[in-house]
């Protein structure tokens, strides 16, 4: 009955948004309340769960998305995105621009949280799309596949890192195995799969569209790349700080503070305000207008993501993940496959990769010791399962849909299938490596 209830709620959500044309935020609120009641949450606690879910996800993403939109807007209107696109195409040729973006997405994705990487890289994708009149989904999805793979497979991302600790795996070994799996997953789910997506119609979010400027009015190449990628550089520095063996607790606290994604984005925006704004002859009034426009453009996205957080919290608070996991635990499957199946089903049901990964890990942890399973591979198996079939209950699905301005059908055909390919290819890679390692 639990799975049937979740299925009913997901179908209701899709019908409300796509068939009846209800605003997605309102649809999420309606479905979240219905789900809470059907799943047995006390009637006086349903709204509290909804509010908590919205608050939790907004606490993580509100500052990042708003500041990222402002930075993206500035990168676009200043001509920096146009300059970056021109330099990339000149370096690799228009024929290979997709591959250049895939490599950039992979490098950037290693130190960055997925949401930050998405917000930062979308303006770069759109600048290439607008300048060279290329299909947006065809060009953009492979880069986002890179970000998704690093998020699910590679430490120091939160979920893989937590799983490494939980299974007492080796961080470096997990990273190496993850890298071996990540490369074919990115290639097959990215550029290869994107060949079938060239005809998907997409008119990306207008906030990142800027008038093409004459060459003499563009910022320099170094200024453009440095400013656009400053958040990446700052986060990479903080990610590598623990390996410098600096013991001073005062310095560690400062680095931790400066490495917080919200602080990083604020620093990057302040630097960009000077390097791409004031230095380029723009007044603070003009810049404030651009920032206001950027926030207006992402306001609906924020509401939709808040709604998805409410839905996820209602499902989590009802204890659905534990019920699903306990039912699946009885299946007679090899431990690595069982970890993937549990993570995948919880991911499909709840929408959160992190919740799916950590819940599955708690269930299969005893099996790792009992069956002498390689803990590094269990981390990757569960990580792969936690990426399976992102759909309407996942905030990443709505980020992609709204930024690329797609229908739900086309978002499923592109984004959801890409995530599923990454998940299945990841499992296949784990099973192959398991044949050769003890």
Could you describe the 3D structure shown?
This protein is mainly α and 438 residues long. It has one domain. Helices cover 77% and strands 0% of the residues. The protein contains 19 helices and no strands. Helix 9 (171-194) packs parallel to helix 17. The longest helix has 34 residues, at 284-317. The model has no long low-confidence stretch (mean pLDDT 86).
Offer a few descriptive terms.
77% helix; 19 helices; mainly alpha; 0% strand; 438 residues; globular
How do you describe this structure in short?
It contains 19 helices and no strands.
Overall tally of structural domains: 1
Residue-averaged pLDDT: 86
- The secondary structure category is mainly alpha
Helix fraction bin: over 70%
Number of E-state strands: 0
Task: Specify the overall morphology.
Answer: globular
Q: Please report the number of helical segments.
A: 19
Query: Any idea what the radius of gyration is?
Result: 22 Å
Terminal-residue CA separation: 40 Å
N-to-C series of helices and strands:
HHHHHHHHHHHHHHHHHHH
Strand content: under 5%
Low-confidence stretches: none
Major sheet: size, sense and barrel closure? none
List the helices and strands and how they pair.
Blueprint: H1 2-19, H2 24-38, H3 46-77, H4 80-92, H5 97-109, H6 114-132, H7 136-153, H8 158-167, H9 171-194, H10 221-240, H11 249-258, H12 261-277, H13 284-317, H14 320-329, H15 335-350, H16 353-370, H17 375-385, H18 395-404, H19 408-436
Helix pairs in contact: 1-2, 2-3, 2-13, 3-6, 3-12, 3-13, 4-6, 4-10, 5-6, 5-7, 6-7, 7-9, 7-19, 8-16, 8-17, 9-17, 9-19, 10-12, 13-18, 14-15, 14-16, 15-16, 15-17, 15-19, 16-17, 17-19
Protein name: Gluconate transporter
Family: Belongs to the GntP permease family.
InterPro entries: Glcn_transporter
């Amino acid at each position: 009955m639990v799975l049937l209830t979740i299925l009913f709620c997901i179908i209701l959500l899709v019908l409300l948004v796509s068939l009846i044309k209800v605003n997605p935020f309102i649809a999420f609120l309606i479905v979240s309340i219905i789900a809470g009641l059907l799943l047995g949450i006390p009637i006086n606690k349903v709204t509290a769960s909804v509010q908590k879910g919205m608050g939790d996800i907004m606490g993580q993403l509100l500052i990042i998305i708003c500041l990222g939109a402002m930075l993206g807007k500035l990168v676009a209107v200043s001509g920096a995105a146009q300059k970056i696109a021109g330099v990339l195409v000149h370096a690799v040729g228009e024929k290979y621009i997709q591959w250049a973006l895939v490599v950039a997405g992979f490098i950037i994705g290693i130190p960055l949280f997925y949401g930050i990487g998405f917000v930062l890289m979308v303006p770069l994708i759109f600048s290439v799309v607008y300048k060279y009149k290329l299909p947006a989904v065809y060009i953009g999805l492979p880069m986002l596949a890179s970000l998704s793979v690093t998020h699910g497979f590679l430490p120091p991302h939160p979920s893989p890192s937590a799983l490494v600790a939980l299974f007492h795996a080796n961080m470096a070994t997990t990273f190496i195995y993850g890298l071996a799996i990540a490369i074919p997953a990115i290639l097959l789910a990215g550029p290869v799969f994107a060949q079938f997506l060239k005809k998907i119609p997409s008119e990306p979010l207008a906030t990142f569209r800027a008038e093409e400027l004459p060459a003499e009015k563009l910022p320099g190449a170094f200024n453009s790349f440095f400013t656009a990628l400053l958040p990446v550089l700052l986060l990479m520095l903080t990610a590598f700080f623990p390996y410098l063996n600096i013991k001073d607790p005062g310095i560690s606290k400062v680095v931790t503070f400066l490495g917080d994604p919200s602080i990083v984005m604020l620093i990057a925006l302040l630097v960009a305000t000077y390097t791409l704004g004031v230095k380029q002859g723009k007044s603070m009034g003009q810049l404030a207008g651009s920032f206001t426009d950027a926030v207006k453009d992402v306001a609906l996205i924020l509401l939709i993501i808040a709604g998805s957080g409410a839905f996820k919290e209602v499902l989590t608070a009802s204890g659905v993940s534990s019920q699903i996991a306990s039912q699946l635990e009885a299946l007679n499957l090899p431990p690595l496959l069982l970890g993937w199946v549990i993570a995948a089903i919880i991911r499909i049901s709840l929408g959160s990769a992190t919740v799916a990964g950590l819940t599955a890990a708690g269930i299969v942890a005893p099996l790792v010791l009992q069956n002498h399973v390689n803990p590094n591979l269990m981390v990757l198996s569960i990580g792969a399962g936690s990426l399976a079939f992102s759909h309407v209950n996942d905030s990443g699905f709505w980020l992609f849909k709204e930024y690329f301005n797609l229908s739900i059908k086309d978002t499923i055909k592109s984004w959801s299938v890409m995530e599923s390919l990454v998940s299945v290819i990841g499992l296949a890679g784990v099973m192959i490596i398991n044949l050769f390692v003890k």
